[in-house]
Amino acid sequence: MDTTLLSIAILFPLLGFLINTFFGKNLSKTVVGIISSSTVALAFIITLSQFIALQNGADPTKHVWFDWIRVKDFTVDFAFYYDQLSILWLLFVTGIGSLIHIYSTSYMKEDTNFHKFFSYLNLFIFFMMILVTGSNLLVMFIGWEGVGLCSYLLIGFWYQNQDYNDAAKKAFIMNRVGDLGFLIGAFVLLHLFGTLDFIELREHTEYASLGASLSLLSIATLGLFIGATGKSAQLPLFTWLPDAMAGPTPVSALIHAATMVTAGIFLITRMNFIFDLTPSIQNLIAVIGALTALVAASIALVQNDIKKVLAYSTVSQLGLMFLALGLGAYEIAVFHVITHAFFKACLFLGSGSVIHAINGEQDMRHMGGLKNTMKITYITFLVSSLAISGIPPLSGFFSKDEILLSAFHENKVLWIIASFASILTAFYMFRLVFLTFFNKFRGTKEQENHLQESPTPMTLPLIVLAFLAAVGGLISFPGSSWLNSFLAPVITKNALSHPHQLGTTEYILMVLAVVGALVGIGYAYTKYIKNKHVPVNDNNIPGIQKLLVEKYYIDSIYQFLIVQPLNYLGNFFKKNVEVLISSMVSGFGFVANELSYQAKKSQNGNIGLYLFVFVIGVSAILYYLFIAN
Amino acid sequence: MNISLLLLIYLVGAIATFASGKNNARTVAIVISFIGAIFWLVFYGQIQSATVLTESYTWIDSLNIKLSFLVDGLSYNMLGLCALLLPIILLTTNQQQFKNAHILYSLVLFMTFAMCGTFMAIDGFLYYIFWELALIPIFFIGLLWGNDEFRIRKKTMITFFIYTFAGSLFMLIAFVYLYAKVGSFNWNVLKSAALSVREANWIYLAFFLAYAIKIPVFPFHTWQANTYEKSPAIGTMLLSGIMLKMGLYSILRWQLPLTQGVEKSIVNTIVVLCIIGVIYASLIALRQNHIKRLLAYSSMAHVGLIAAGAYTNSFDGTQGAIIQMLAHGFVVVGLFYIAEIIHSRYQTYLISEMGGIRQQATKFSSFFLILVFASVGLPGTFSFIGEFTLLYSLYDMNIWYAIFGGTTIILGAYYMLKMFQHSMLGNVNENTFTDINTKEFVLLTVLVVVIIGLGFYPNPVYKIISLTPIL
C-alpha cells in the first residue's frame, strides 16, 4: 500500500476545508464548488488505486504519523491502518461523497453561505476518513466525534431557525451519551490489554487466555455498542436522526444516510474478534437491531414529510444491519451498508430534487403527479425504492435477504420481526412513491407552473447511484461472494470458514420475502392509487396510528424522565442548595464576627496585654505539640 | 542563569509598572510579561538536560527556613501557564480602560510574582507566604476595578478573601505541626516525616480544606461564581486561568507526597466529593443566564474532574491533571475573553439579551464555537487528552467513578451548546455587533492554535511532564 498517497488522500479534504474557510468568501461559487468537489474526487481516485492494489495482493499497512497520547506504560500512536475494511469504507465514503458534492453545487446554489456549506462538507469527509482509517480506538474517536461536530454544524446550517439549532444540539448531545459508552469501552480494553490498537488487540484476544476477564470484556463490548447506538441511531438513542432532517438535503443523504450513521456498524465490524467473545452482548445487539428495525419502520408508515419517511427508513435499515452484526454475520452487515448507501443516498437526493422543484415543500400531501415533469428523478427514485423493498434482482434484495436468512437460522422470532419490518418497508416506500409521483399535483398553482426536472449536476449523481443501487448486489452474489472473500482477512469468524448452502428452505424463504414485499407494495397501490387516499391532518388520527404519529411518545418520555428532572435539579441546586451552603458559610462568618465583637472589648490598645495573650497562645500551642504528645 | 530570576522579573516589573505612571503602565506591564514568557521558553532546553533545577539561599537561619526553589516538570508546566497566559491576559485589556492603571497592572504583575513563587517554592514556609501573598492583589483588583456597585462587590470580595484565607490557616496548622515534628520546612524532610495513620489523615484533611476552597471543590465553592461575576475580566481570567490551579498544583506537590499514609477511605470520599461537584456544577451551569456565572460553574465542573484525578494519586491521574490544568487555563481564558468581547459590544452578560450575533460576526462566532468545543473536550483539542487521561485514572480506581465523572462530557455539551445557541444563533439581532478587530483576532488565534496544536501534537508537554520525579 502506498501510505504517502493515502495520507495525501486524507489531507485533501482538509485542504479543501481550509481553503474554503479562509478564502471561500472571496471566491466565486463555481470555484468553491470545484475546489471542494475535486478534493474529494481526488481522494476517491487515490483510494480506488489502493483498492485495486489491495485486490491484487498488496499487504494491509499500518502507518504511524507520530506519538499522540501517553498513558502510564504505553503510548497511543497517531496512526492509520489501511486494510480491506478501511479501504472499502473509504471507497464508498469518498465515492458517494464526490457525487453528493457535485449534487450540492447545484442544490445549494442560492445559499449565501455556500462556501461555508462546502467547507463543512469537506471537513466531514476528512473526519470520516480518519474514522475509518484510524489504527486504534482513539484516532478513530477523533473521526467519530469530528463527524459529530460536522453533523452538528450542518443540521444547524440554517442557524436563524432555533428549531433547527435545537435539532443540531439534540443530535450532538444524544451522540455524547453514546460516546461515554465508547470511552468506557476503551478504558476497559486499555486496562485489560494495555493497547487500543486494532492489530494488537486482535493478537491479544487470539492468544491470551481471557478467563476471568470475560465479564469485563462484556462491559467493553457493551460500552462500544452503546457508542454505536448513538452514532447509528438505534434504540434507545435514535430520536435525534429524524430531527436531523433539519439540515440541507444533501447532508441528510451523505451524513445521515450513507456514511456517518454507518460508523457504529463499522466499529463493531472492526472489533468483531472481541464481540465474538461476548455472546450475551451479541444477542443484545441482535435484539436491539431487530426491534429498532420494526419500531422505526412502523413510525415511517404515518410520516407525511418526505424526508422524515426516509429518515425513519434509515433507522430501520440500520437496525437490520445491527441484527446481522448481532448474529455474527459481519460481512452481511457490511454488504447491506454498501447497498443501503447506494439506494438511500439516491432516495435522499431524489427527495432533494423534488423539494428543490417545488420550492422547499417537504409535505407529501402537497405533492403528487411528479413523474411526468421529473422523469429522471422519478425513474431513479423508483429503482431505489424497488431496491430497498427487496425486489430482485436489485441490490437490496440480496443484502436484505441474506440478513433474513441468517436470522432464520439463528432465531425464528428475530426472523419474524425483521421480515415484518421488511414488509412495512415495501409499503411505506411505495406509499411515498405513489403520493409523490402519482395522481395529480396537490400543491399550489404557482408551484405547479414552475415544476421542472433538476439540472444535470443533480440528476447525474441520481443516475449513477440508481445504477449502483440496481447492480450493487453483484459484489456478494449468493454462492460466489466477492465481498466475503475480500473481507475474510478482517473478520475472524468469517463466512468462508462456515459457508451455508443454498437449499430448498433458503429458496422458499427468498420467495416468501419477495411475496411479502409485493404484498406491501400492492397494499400501498390499492390505498394510494386506486382509492386515491391522501393522509389526513395529524390531529384527527385515532388509536394506534396516533401512537405511531407520536413516535411511541419516546421523545416525550425522554423529556419527562431525563430533561425535565435535570433542569429541575439544576434549578433546585441553584435556588436552594447554593443558598443553603452559602448561608452555612456565612453562619461560620457570623459566629466569628460575634466572637470578634466580644474580643474587641479586650482590644484596648494595651500592647502589653496583646503580647501577654500572644505569648500564652504560643506557649499553649508549643505545649500541645511537644509535651502533650 | 537561575530560573528564580523569573520571580525577580515579575517583582521588579511590578515596581517598574507602578513607577511608570498611569499612561505607560499597560505598555510596561506587557513588555515585562513578554520578557517573562521568553525567559520561560529559554529554560525549555535547560530543563530537558538538567531534569530538575534547584536553588537554595539562606534566609531565617534560626528557624531553619530557607529560600529554596525547585523546578521540575510539574513546576515548569505551571510556570509556563503563568508566563504564557499573562501576556494574553494583559493584551485583552485596552489602553484607557482603567482608572489608576499603574496600580492595577502593578498588582497583576505582583500577583504573577506570587503565583510563580508558589509554583517554585520548595520550603513550606516560603511556599505558604507566596500562597497567601497571591491573594492580596486579586482582592484589590476585584474590589477596586470590579463590576457592579462598590458596596455589593466589596461584600463579595471580602467573603472571598476571608473564606480562602481561613482555609489556608488549616494548611498553616498542618505545616506547623509537621515542622514541630521534623524541625524543617524543607519538602524533602517533611516528606520523610514518620506519620502515624491518624496524623496523616488529619494533615491530609487540613491540606484538603485549604485546597478545596481555592480550587474550589464542592461544597466549598460558594465564593466562586460571585467573585468571577464581580471581578473585572482581567481578574476573572487570572483567577480561573491560573490562580485556582495553585490549589490543584499544591495537591500534587504538597498534600499527596506529605501524607502518603492516609487511609484509603478518606481518599475515596474526597474523590467522590469531587465527582459530585462535577455533576452539581454542570447542572447549575445549565440554569445560568449570566454568561460569566455559567462559565464559573462550568469551570468548577472541569476543575472538579481535575481534582478527582489528582486525588487518585496515580500516574495517569497526575499526568491528566497537569495536562488538563494547562488546557483548562487556555480554554477558560479564551471563553472569558469571548464574554468580555460581547460585553464590550452589548454591555450585558445576560444570555437572554444576546442572540443573533453569528450572522453579524462570523469570525467571532467561529472562535467562540471552537472554544466551546474545546471546552467540551472534543478530540483534537488539548482538553480531550486531559479529560481522557483523567477519566481513565478514575476508571482504574472504580468504573463508576469514570461513569459518573464522565457525565461531564454529556452535560458539558448540553450547557455549552445551549449557551452558544442562545447567545449567538437565531434571528439577526437588531443591535449591530462589530466583528472582532485585529487585536482580538490575533489573541483568539493564538489561543486556538495552542489548543488545537497541542490537541494533535502534545509531545512538547509530555516532554516536560516526564521530568517530574513524583511521577
Provide a descriptive summary of the structure in words.
The complex is a heterodimer of chains A (629) and B (471). Chain A has 629 residues and is mostly helical. Helices cover 73% and strands 3% of the residues of chain A. Chain A has 26 helices and two strands. Chain A has helices at 3-23, 29-55, 84-107, 114-133, 137-155, 162-193, 198-207, 214-231, 240-243, 249-258, 263-270, 272-275, 279-300, 306-326, 330-357, 370-373, 375-389, 395-410, 412-437, 445-450, 456-471, 482-487, 504-530, 543-549, 554-600, 607-628; strands at residues 61-71, 74-82. A two-stranded antiparallel ribbon of chain A has the order 1-2. In chain A, helix 5 packs antiparallel against helix 6, helix 13 (279-300) runs parallel beside helix 19 (412-437) and helix 18 runs antiparallel to helix 19 (412-437). Chain A is globular, with a radius of gyration of 29 Å. Chain B has 471 residues and is mainly alpha-helical. Chain B contains 19 helices and two strands. Chain B has a two-stranded antiparallel ribbon with strand order 1-2. In chain B, strand 1 and strand 2 form a beta hairpin. In chain B, helix 2 (25-50) packs antiparallel against helix 3 (73-91). The longest helix of chain B has 33 residues, at 150-182. Classes of the chains: A mainly alpha (629), B mainly alpha (471). Chains A and B meet through strand 1, helix 5, helix 6, helix 25 and helix 26 of A and helix 7, helix 12, helix 14, helix 16 and helix 17 of B.
Q: How large is the count of helical segments of chain B?
A: 19
- H-E string of chain A: HHEEHHHHHHHHHHHHHHHHHHHHHHHH
> In oligomeric terms, what are we looking at?
heterodimer
Please describe the biggest sheet of chain A, giving its number of strands, its sense, and whether it closes into a barrel.
Answer: 2 strands, antiparallel
Alpha-carbon distance between the two ends of chain A: 74 Å
Please give the share of residues in helix of chain A: over 70%
